[in-house]
Write a structure and sequence with these properties.
By secondary structure, the chain is of the alpha+beta class. The protein has two domains: 2-43; 57-157, Immunoglobulin-like. The protein is 23% helix and 28% strand. The strands form three sheets. It has a four-stranded antiparallel β-sheet, with no helix packed on it. A three-stranded mixed β-sheet has the order 2-10-7, with no helix packed on it. A three-stranded antiparallel β-sheet has the order 4-8-9, with no helix packed on it. The longest helix is centred in the first third of the chain and has 32 residues, at 12-43. It starts with a helix and ends with a strand. The model is unreliable at 50-55 (pLDDT under 50).
């Protein structure tokens, strides 16, 4: 009769202890997997955003079709105080900034231009602030090496 008692289904305490061991093993595997992934990604060179390249990697040849100009904001008050930032990017054929290039904006005597950064930096950027006392729209163009960029930007003073 005693042999039959040991062959019966395990008691609830034994089931609970097996369930606890399985849960602990699963949690241990999750922790180990997380640790391994952390070490893997720390040791790997990962990039979720673009990386800046060195100015020396640029070909140095300006590609006017790749270069561009934009303004922010597109409109401002015509009070001579409120400014619009004009940003020009001079890029090579691979889309990399060309360093050290002087950039000029087209001239209009009604538009006041403050030169913030006229020589391109390591990403090919030059910046200007413009303001006006006259209510009108202006088409601003930029040039580099006596060549005008094919793109212009329209700004409004109201």
């Amino acid at each position: 009769m005693e042999d039959k008692i040991f062959q019966q289904a395990p008691t609830t305490e034994v089931r609970r202890s097996k369930k606890g061991i399985v849960t602990a093993l699963v949690l241990l595997l999750i922790v180990l997997l997380s640790l391994w992934l952390t070490v893997f990604f720390i040791n790997q060179r990962t990039s979720f955003l673009g990386r800046a390249s060195s100015p020396s990697l640029s070909s140095g040849e300006i590609a006017l079709d790749n270069s561009y100009i934009f303004a922010s904001p597109l409109s401002a008050k015509a009070d001579g105080k409120e400014k619009i930032r004009i940003t020009v990017f001079i890029l090579d054929s691979q889309g990399k900034g060309v360093y050290g290039q002087p950039v000029f904006l087209g001239e209009d005597e009604r538009l006041e231009v403050k030169e913030v950064q006229t020589i391109t930096d390591n990403i090919g950027r030059a910046m200007f602030d413009v303001s006006s006392f006259i209510v009108t729209d202006y088409f601003v163009e930029a040039s580099v090496n006596n060549q005008v960029l094919p793109q212009r930007v329209k700004v409004s003073f109201q």
